[in-house]
Amino acid sequence: MSRLSAGDIAAGRRLFTAGSYVRLGEVLPRLLAGAGRSAEQGPAGAAQAARVWVLASQLAVKQDRTETAGAYAQRAGAAARRSGDPVVLAAAARAAATPLRRTGRTDEALHLLEEARIYLTASGQATAAGLDAAGMAALTASYTAAQAHRAPLARELAGQAEEIAHHLAGRPRTEAGRPWELTADQCALYRIGIHRCLGDLDTALAAARRLQPAQLPTAERRARAATDTARALFAAGDITGAFTQLRLIELTAPLEARRPSVRALTRQVAELRPGLPGLSDYTQRTGRRRG
User: Fold this and answer.
1) Residue 136: how many CA atoms within 13 Å on its side-chain side?
2) Rounded to a whole number, what is the distance in angstroms from the first to the last CA of the chain?
3) N or C: which end of the chain has fewer CB within 10 A?
4) Domain ranges (residues) in the chain
């Protein structure tokens, strides 16, 4: 690959959002090689490189390779700063947040996300794309705060994201015709995980009931909705309901059901309710790790 193209990166992104992680792992080395060269080709090249490193970091998270995810996120952040593109900076900050919070560096994650939000909104005349990115950064920050049991901050940030989503709902789609990533359903999805982490299972499950998974834009997001709902139901003692959601994960994006964290939940379900119809076969299928 002589140089990166927007089409190359978009194709890689589509593989990720479809849950095609094995195929993405096959094409990613070519994208990474191109990113190394592109990063030195001015602001536009740095933005392209940052997008590739964000993608690599997100795939590493799916594979439970936290250290690798953090290394790619660091590269993405450095390239995003060189690009001067606040939307790319927000994407890099969101990518960095997961490995940072997994390694106990919550404050650093929140700082990066707040820095990105300020870049996106400082002028007071943020573009619609900038607002979309700012809202998603707020959701990521809310979940990060919730995992650190900082309830007031988590609720405040989730509320900010919902306000932006309401504002964007009346705006035209992006120039490429893609829907905004930040929607009411995206906010409801995050609310499931946020309130489960805060121990407020009633609110988490209310968000799950409010969510319309079919309205989420990608298989990866729909699988995430089923995953978070399964975790909330399991925490609430509804083991059968949790297994129903686990089955939805496999139907939506089979490789999501094979992720280490999801397989761990499956084992917990099996320990408590080993006789659930279909559970033994499900456990055997999803226990075979494939990316």
Assistant:
1) 21
2) 24
3) N
4) 1-83, 85-182
